[in-house]
Design goal:
This protein has 316 residues and is of the alpha/beta class. The chain has 13 helices and nine strands. The two termini are 18 Å apart.
Length: 316
């Protein structure tokens, strides 16, 4: 059976993230304590209490999410006794690093150091903002480029994220509203126009960090945000595509279509959460996109969230 593990990216963090599994499972506590040692600050306090709203700073969001992803994954593996074995893994933006951990290409500790530095560089050198348009990439791209903006992510056939300066995005949003009055535009809360040319400097500085990182060939196939297909197993090639990923669009819909083309039968989403309320009330970040892609691919793949104590219990 082809099983796909997926991991969400920024925007799925929330205050209190991980506390429910930390309180309930020794395995989760060990993951969080190890992360604090690697990062040099208390990721437990950052994730659970969000002091000074610092959890939403990119440099903190990325390691906090990766820690939650892997804590959910390890508790799930413990509760299922390792009976669920993935054949593929994928992640949206930051989540690609968690996918590489799940594939044993990166250790948890190495991935933490990478995303901590990645987040620092993106926050320090990134500029601009992002807007999600409920439009096909072919519709929005000419308008975006005419207003000095760039495609940041192709999430669904009818959902494309665009990055640019605040002023340029505002003009672009007005142009879209005039030309496509029924198409929605949603400004996203980010510290920069991620996955566009606005990340060029951050990507160049991060490249050297990637080159020094220890990485093994993945034990299962991992999807590349940059290409939309699978990574080849060569670590040097994976690092190169992670570098390009930082300043090129996330080809998420292509990732999902590639997985469906390989006959994926089950999909598990680990970590993060969106919506209001307590942890058990959160919704999975990627579920909507995955279910739409499942229908578009005429697939019967079964989707299961593993994002908090409640869903872990339900899944196991």
């Amino acid at each position: 059976m082809n099983i796909l593990y997926v991991f969400p990216g920024q925007g799925s963090q929330y205050e209190g993230m991980g506390k429910d599994i930390y309180d309930a499972h020794d395995t989760a506590r060990k993951i969080y304590d190890a992360a604090s040692d690697v990062l040099g600050f208390d990721i437990v306090d950052m994730s659970f209490n969000n002091p000074g709203d610092q959890l939403n700073l990119t440099r903190n969001t990325q390691p906090a999410l990766l820690t939650h992803h892997i804590a959910c994954l390890e508790v799930f593996k413990e509760k299922t006794g390792g009976a669920v074995q993935p054949t593929m893994a994928a992640g949206h933006s930051l989540g690609e690093y968690s996918a590489l951990v799940a594939a044993n290409a990166l250790t948890f500790e190495t991935a933490l150091k990478l995303v901590q530095k990645r987040g620092e560089l993106m926050g320090e050198h990134g500029e601009g903002e992002m807007t999600a348009f409920m439009m096909a990439v072919d519709e929005i791209q000419p308008l975006a480029e005419a207003h000095k903006c760039a495609i940041s992510a192709c999430n669904q056939p009818q959902q494309t994220v665009v990055g640019g300066s605040s002023v340029d995005l505002e003009v672009l949003e007005a142009a879209v509203a005039e030309k496509f009055p029924r198409k929605r535009a949603i400004r996203l809360k980010t510290e920069g126009a991620f996955h566009t040319y606005y990340m060029d400097k951050a990507a160049e500085l991060f490249r050297a960090v990637l080159e020094e990182a220890e990485m093994s060939a993945p034990e299962i196939r991992v999807l590349s945000n940059y290409t939309g297909g699978f990574h080849d197993p060569d670590p040097a090639g994976i690092k190169e595509r992670l570098y390009y990923q930082l300043k090129h669009p996330v080809m998420w819909d292509a990732n999902l279509m590639t997985a469906f083309g390989e006959g994926v039968a089950k999909i598990y989403e680990f970590g993060g959460g969106i919506g209001t309320g307590e942890a058990h009330e959160k919704r999975p970040n990627l579920e909507g996109m995955i279910k739409k892609a499942t229908r578009a691919a005429d697939s019967e793949a079964v989707y299961t969230p593993v994002i908090n104590r409640q869903t872990i219990d339900d899944a196991t």
